[in-house]
Amino acid sequence: MRLIKVLVVLILAALFGLVGYAYFGDMQADRQEVRKPIPTMGGSGD
Question: What confidence score (pLDDT) does residue 43 get?
């Protein structure tokens, strides 16, 4: 009986983990454009 309770708890934990991963796992960061000047050796020399 105790083994069945442990299995049920583990299965429920796995299901909650799967639902949490499905909800939070595919979140992407907001995209934003970043522009940085790249210094060059023979450039115009700002």
Answer: 60
> What's at 33, amino acid-wise?
E
pTM: 0.52
Cα separations (Å) of 43 from 8, 23, 40? 68, 49, 5
- Classified as helix, coil or strand, 38 is coil
Which contiguous run of DSSP H or E holds residue 11?
A: helix 2-24
How far apart (Å, rounded) are the C-alpha atoms in residues 37 and 29? Answer: 24
**In angstroms, rounded to a whole number, what is the distance separating the alpha carbons of residues 36 and 22?**
36
Tokens representing 18 are 């799967």
